[in-house]
Specification:
This protein is α+β, with helices and mostly antiparallel strands. It has helices spanning about 15-25, 50-55, 70-85; strands at about 5, 35, 45, 60-65. The protein has a 4-stranded antiparallel sheet, covered by helices on one side.
Length: about 90
């Protein structure tokens, strides 16, 4: 199962707008992707409430995981979003 640890780049963490951008991107993936705080319980990256409930802040690490065909590409795309400062980027 492909996994990647990535540091949150958005200044507000995964709150409101950055979380919604990530959730929309996760919903477009052909596989289910999960997010977890380091050592925490994974949540479905397609669930806005679950992502917000992580309470993940700027500079914290998250572990992205996926399984199945297209898992690595899905993780690559979502990891890039998590690492970016989505607070300063235009809406996708």
């Amino acid at each position: 199962m492909p996994q990647r640890t990535v540091v949150i780049g958005s200044r507000s963490g995964l709150h409101a707008r950055p979380a919604s951008v990530l959730v929309r991107a996760a919903a477009r993936q052909p596989v289910r992707v999960t997010l977890a705080r380091d050592g925490g319980t994974p949540v479905d990256a397609r669930s806005l409430l679950s992502v917000l409930a992580l309470g993940a802040e700027h500079g914290e690490s998250l572990v992205l995981s996926a399984e199945g065909e297209g898992a690595q590409a899905a993780i690559d795309e979502l990891a890039a979003l998590v690492a970016a400062d989505l607070d300063t980027q235009e809406q996708r």
